[in-house]
Design goal:
The complex is a heterodimer of chains A (about 375) and B (about 150). Chain A contains 14 helices and eight strands. Chain A is of the alpha/beta class. Chain A has a single domain, classed as Metal-dependent hydrolases (TIM Barrel), CATH 3.20.20. In chain A, strand 3, helix 6 and strand 4 form a beta-alpha-beta unit. With about 150 residues, chain B is an all-beta fold. Chain B contains no helices and nine strands. In chain B, strand 3 and strand 4 form a beta hairpin. Chain B is globular and about 50 Å long. The chains are: A alpha/beta (about 375), B mainly beta (about 150). Chains A and B meet through loops of A and loops of B.
Chain lengths: ~375, ~150
């Protein structure tokens, strides 16, 4: 691992790194019902006005202040994530974010059985995001929110807005009725591949609405338990993609795992490779070692970065998840478990830092390469 | 370290070694008038290029660096509240009211009187610092003085 040389950066080097342009793969612009209601068709608007949004979710308390950083609320009393100027001042400008991938809010709509309402709401979220965010700051890119519980409607939404240059991925919550490698979802991946869009799984809604329970042992009581259970759901999706042969059916499909942590993937990759040796004959369409599919097809975002008890352990596990190929920085701004671009991760060796903070994401999302750093 | 007039008030702080021992160089700077920080209040001041939160807990002043040792957030903008303790499920008890600050970002809890994390009183763990920098404080005439 190259990170051993990171311990003693030259002062001049450190200074130039502070100006390093970065790509942040997870920024939550607000896109709740209050914001998107004007974009709904009349009948849903009237229902929402009469009865509220009817989103599943909210079984557990959240963290921070209303789930947000306490200092991310605009001074005029607005809601966190609602004010582009504050986002620019507090995050984009301050940390030289060259590109920020917006991931939105309102994933609860992906857990309702009302497919048509889900489709209308996803369209409203996407239209609102394009008009209120993407058109106002050229650094921002959008995620296509889809009614993933009904793959044909989801594909229609991808076809509707996924061809736009400023929409760079499709996004779904981690909570699901079936693991994402299941062929039930194939219409979604056909559309992703048509528009060359990665499919991003963002944590949330595990065990909510129509989704499966948040653990194999059933429902859990506390928010902290749901957070601890998220990797197991994400692990199920990853194994599903590999052993259902999804990447064989869709050789150009890319998948992003978001916000369930990073380092737990290391023992999962070891286990999948080990099991595959003896059980390969049951899934012979899996032609390569599982970890090879992972390296080629899967990317992982950093936040909330794991904090193991030693730097040596951190470096060894980063190496085991092939961080130089797969890891992409994200902050989760303005959510309460925000990871600072400068202080969340320990200092990485230059070559690895270039990959994690910019290059891997630029390649995945088709963004321009890093500008040469300003001198000194 | 705390100060009430010239007196150290809390014996618990004596067992905790601050990373910058109070009085080591002992240059004193006026941070605020005493009347600006009544009991229960805090004021964030700039002293020698350092942002510092000055807290008044029941008449005793405490000064904390306005930087969380975890990821650098402005710690002193966080909520001041109690330590929550429990003897078992569904038992919530609130102790040391007004002595705990929760960081605005990840809600890590720090004891304002010691600068230590509530869950980990050690100065350091292997992977990251868990103590907020503390400064000595005294009251001279009607000014709160910070010692750097």
């Amino acid at each position: 691992m190259q990170t051993s040389q990171a311990e003693t950066p030259a002062p001049a080097d450190k200074k130039s790194k502070a100006k390093r342009p970065i790509i942040d793969c997870d920024i939550h612009q607000i896109s709740g019902m209050e914001e998107i209601k004007p974009y709904l068709p009349r009948h849903y608007r009237e229902l929402v006005e009469a009865y509220g949004p009817a989103y599943p979710g909210g079984m557990h308390f959240n963290g921070g202040v209303g789930g947000r950083m306490a200092d991310a609320y605009p001074e005029d009393g607005g809601r966190a994530g609602s004010d582009l100027a504050l986002m620019q001042r507090q995050h984009l400008d301050r940390y030289n974010v060259a590109y920020g991938i917006l991931t939105g809010e309102g994933y609860g709509i992906q857990a309702t059985i009302n497919y048509d309402y889900a489709a209308a709401t996803c369209s409203a979220i996407n239209d609102y995001t394009i008009e209120h965010w993407l058109s106002r700051d050229s650094r921002l890119r959008g995620s296509v929110m889809i009614p993933k519980q009904e793959p044909r409607l989801a594909a229609k939404e991808i076809d509707r807005v996924g061809g736009r240059a400023d929409m760079v991925q499709v996004i779904v919550c981690n909570g699901a009725t079936l693991p994402y490698g299941n062929r039930y979802y194939d219409p979604i991946y056909e559309a992703c591949v048509r528009h060359n869009l990665p499919f991003t799984i963002h944590v949330g809604l595990e065990g909510e609405g129509i989704n499966s329970p948040p653990t194999g042992a059933g429902y859990v009581t506390n928010y902290i338990e749901t957070r601890c259970a998220r990797p197991s759901t994400m692990a199920a999706h990853l194994a599903s993609f590999i052993f259902e042969g999804t990447f064989e059916r869709f050789p150009t499909l890319r998948v992003v795992l978001q916000e369930a942590g990073v380092l737990w993937l290391a023992p999962l990759l070891w286990k999948m490779d080990q099991e595959w040796k003896g059980l390969r004959v049951q899934t012979p369409w899996v032609r390569k070692r599982p970890s090879e599919y992972f390296r080629e097809h899967v990317r992982v975002t950093t936040q909330p970065i794991d904090e193991p008890p030693s730097r040596a352990l951190f470096d060894a596990l980063l190496d085991s998840v092939h961080a130089d190929e797969t890891l992409m920085y994200c902050s989760d701004y303005p959510h309460w478990d925000y990871d600072s671009p400068k202080q969340a991760l320990p200092k990485l060796a230059d070559a690895l830092a270039d990959r994690v903070y910019y290059d891997t994401a630029a390649e995945l999302y088709g963004l321009p390469p890093r500008e040469k750093e300003a001198e000194g | 370290m705390s100060a009430t007039g010239q007196q150290r008030s809390d014996p618990r702080t004596a067992s905790v070694e601050p990373r910058r021992p109070a009085g080591s160089s002992d240059k004193r700077f006026r941070a605020a008038r005493v009347s600006e920080i009544p009991p229960g209040a805090r004021k964030i001041v700039e002293v020698e290029g350092r942002s510092i939160g000055v807290y008044n807990i029941q008449g005793a002043f405490h000064a904390l660096r306005n930087v969380c040792p975890h990821q650098g957030a402005e710690l002193c903008k966080g909520l001041v509240t109690a330590a929550v303790v429990s003897s078992g499920p569904d038992d919530f008890r609130f102790e040391r009211e007004g002595e705990i600050v929760r960081c605005p970002w990840h809600q890590w809890e720090f004891d304002i009187k010691t600068g230590c994390m509530v869950v980990d009183g050690k100065v350091r763990t292997k992977s990251y610092e868990v103590t907020v920098e503390k400064f000595g404080v005294s009251v001279e005439e009607d000014y709160v003085m910070i010692h750097l």
